[in-house]
Amino acid sequence: xxxxxxxxxxxxxxxxxxxxxxxEVKALQTLTTAVGYHCLVFTIQDVCLNTDTGRxxxxxxxxxxxxxxxxxxASVLESTTLQTSIITLTTSDANGDTVICSLxxxxxxxxxxxxxxxxLTGGELKMYMIYTKANPNFRMATVxxxxxxxxxTDDKNSTSVECKVRILPSQPPVFTNIPTLVTMSTSNxxxxxxxxxxxxxxxxxxxxxxITCVPSNCPFTIFNTGHIQLNKDLxxxxxxxxxxxxxxxxxxNTVSSTLSVTISGINxxxxxxxxxxxNILVVPENTAPGSSIYQVSATDINKDKLTYSMTSSPGTxxxxxxxxxxx
Length: 327
Fold this sequence. Notes:
Elements: E1 6-10, E2 18-21, E3 24-27, E4 36-46, E5 51-60, E6 66-70, E7 73-77, E8 84-92, E9 100-107, E10 113-117, E11 126-132, E12 145-153, E13 158-168, E14 174-175, E15 180-185, E16 193-196, E17 199-200, E18 208-214, E19 220-222, E20 227-230, E21 241-249, E22 254-264, E23 271-272, E24 298-299
Parallel strand pairs: 7-13, 15-22
Antiparallel strand pairs: 1-4, 2-3, 4-5, 6-8, 8-11, 9-12, 10-11, 12-13, 14-17, 16-20, 18-21, 19-20, 21-22, 23-24
């Protein structure tokens, strides 16, 4: 029978966290603040003063926070102008620690995104939202995908995630009431309406319009409301019609369509039908005064009464020839 009873002694600074009961090592308190390595040195001694020592190292582990992006890849139109929530960031911590997240950077570098905590979530789950900032000025032709880097920490460990944002092209405007034919008349005056151009665009409501005409210098003006009006009276207009090329842009896409405008009631100039002659007209020198030497012929599309006149080169010709102004 062993008469030398054993006695345990713990020689360690870590006994603030750990104690021995019935030769079993147990936690003295919650180990939240004790994350890391702790080494314990034990000495055993009996009444016969026999001793032995042992060393026990304990690593107290803290799980890093869990972080997920939903969706992992979000899509947003390049024409976006308002602050828009695009990705939900869900965090949790197995140890119950408070998790704080921050947006560390984006690739390509820019300031188009922000990270904000969702004030409506609580308990174990903590949610953040990734937003597009107002007027981010996305250009898909330049950058079609951004990577947003998020780091979340519980003050002991951190977790980093990458959330993707894909930029979608803005859809172009579509004309809904041209091409078409518009008829004006010489009785129309400025600022009579020619047409109010209408377009649809699912991505934008702000447009810039412009026009060009064939023939050029057309008597029309267009405003950024799509309203086309006369900028001069047509009472003395001599051009019977125009092809008006209407262009609209939403800031990302530019489209054009053709508006045909005819002008009725125009007095078209008369045209000679038998002048000039291919050869010189030969008149005998002894032709009697009053003799008809040539009958000028002309037409007028408006069927107006025509009046004839003539000049001569050299000027002495008018002393030999005359023309009937009515025939």
